[in-house]
């Protein structure tokens, strides 16, 4: 039976590097000193975007080199990214109804964390091009979706757990991770409110604890409904379409010969 694409040393190193960059990029309001005068991500986003693309290529290249992925596997990555991008505008983001999230959960489960991270990030990039959603927020959405898909690949029992137990695990993960995705995206946009007089905006003169309280209030007031809708949509689609899609993805990975070494027999051997 073909399992998820395993992480090798280079893939793991690339993933850790891009994740460290991402954590610093979204978490700076809680670690930067008040005297730093950092007020927004607007000027840093283009540089982060360029650096993220380089790191994504490094993750994919390492996964291909270490796992022996062939052109069929890379083509599968493209097909899934295009499918996820096409699913994103289906609900137009209304009340958080975004069908692409359930596809990322199931794909990450089958393909593994390294391939899943690359798939999630590329899917978000492709969907932004499709919907015209390119802006300073895009690199943070790509990071959040990469982590979202990677997390599904890190769930236990990828080669043993099947049936209702696996579906329940994926549904619970999708529900919780949908809120985590929303939190990361909120963190990217929240500092942009620093110029307002709101008591939930980022205050560069306040300490980490005070800003954390402000952010929690901001998230509850502005994003809770969207996050809940996204989480419920992911759970419903995972339970309804999960069995058929998991079988299709696993069948496709077998045909793509994931992690299958190519050997040649000598004539007369």
UniProtKB/TrEMBL annotation:
Keywords: Membrane, Transmembrane, Transmembrane helix. InterPro entries: ECF_substrate-spec_UCP037395 (IPR017196). The chain crosses the membrane at residues 12-33, 45-65, 110-131, 137-155, 167-184, 228-246. The keyword Amino-acid biosynthesis does not apply. This is ECF transporter S component.
């Amino acid at each position: 039976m073909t399992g998820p694409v395993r992480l090798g040393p280079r893939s793991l190193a690339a993933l850790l590097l891009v994740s460290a960059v991402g954590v610093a990029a979204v978490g700076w309001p809680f670690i930067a000193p008040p005297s730093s005068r950092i007020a927004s991500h607007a000027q840093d986003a283009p540089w982060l975007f360029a650096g993220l693309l380089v790191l994504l290529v490094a993750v994919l290249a390492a996964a291909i080199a270490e796992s022996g992925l062939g052109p069929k596997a890379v083509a599968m990555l493209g097909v899934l990214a295009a499918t996820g991008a096409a699913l994103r505008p289906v609900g137009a983001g209304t009340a958080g109804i975004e069908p692409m999230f359930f596809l990322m959960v199931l794909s990450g489960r089958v393909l593994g964390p390294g391939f899943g991270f690359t798939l999630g990030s590329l899917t978000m990039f492709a969907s932004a091009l499709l919907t015209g959603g390119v802006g300073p927020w895009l690199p943070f959405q790509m990071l959040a979706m990469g982590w979202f898909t990677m997390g599904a690949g890190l769930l236990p029992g990828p080669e043993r757990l099947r049936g209702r137990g696996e579906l329940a695990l994926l549904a619970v993960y999708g529900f919780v991770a949908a809120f985590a995705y929303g939190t990361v995206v909120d963190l990217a946009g929240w500092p942009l409110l620093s110029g307002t007089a709101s008591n939930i905006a980022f205050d560069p003169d306040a300490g980490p604890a005070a800003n954390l309280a402000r952010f929690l209030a901001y998230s509850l007031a502005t994003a809770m409904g969207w996050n809940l809708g996204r989480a419920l949509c992911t759970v419903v689609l995972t339970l309804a379409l999960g069995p058929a899609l998991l079988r299709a993805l696993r069948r496709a990975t077998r045909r793509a010969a994931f992690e299958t070494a190519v050997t040649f027999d000598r004539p007369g051997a």
